[in-house]
Specification:
This protein has one domain. 30% of the residues lie in helices and 29% in strands.
Length: 132
């Protein structure tokens, strides 16, 4: 019986934001959920992971004005696809956070994955933001 290996990956997306905003908040990260045991091939032989957007994280969250945090969050959701594809070797080089492994039947994979995704969308897991 296959396992779903849910992982959280934190991606530094600061470079895609205006310089003055990035200077104000420190760093801006996208937080994504994916299954390390499932790779897809997007019209190429190189395997990719399917990253599901969970939330945006700001390095200086506590000191950032609430209106700025709200603007960043709404803009992030407006500009971020619900699912993104990144080459597996690229994601493997990033900091990842292990979540509890789920056992599932192969024919039920999509149902199990959807439950896992819904759970973590409603209950964001704990992770550490890089400080460099």
């Amino acid at each position: 019986m296959p396992y779903i290996k849910p992982r959280i990956v934190v991606v530094d997306e600061t470079e895609y934001w205006a310089d003055d905003l990035a200077a104000q908040v420190g760093k801006i990260y996208g937080v994504y959920l994916y299954d390390e045991n499932r790779v897809v091939h997007c019209c190429e032989l190189t395997p990719s992971y399917e990253l599901n957007a969970l939330e945006v994280a700001i390095l200086n969250w506590e000191t950032c004005p609430e209106i700025v945090r709200d603007d960043i969050e709404s803009e992030w959701w407006r500009g971020t696809e619900p699912i993104s594809y990144f080459h597996a070797h690229t994601v493997d080089g990033w900091d990842k956070f292990l979540l509890p492994t789920q056992r599932c039947k192969a024919e039920d994979y999509d149902d199990y994955w959807e439950e896992i995704l819904e759970y973590y969308q409603a209950n964001p897991p704990h992770y550490r933001l890089p400080v460099n």
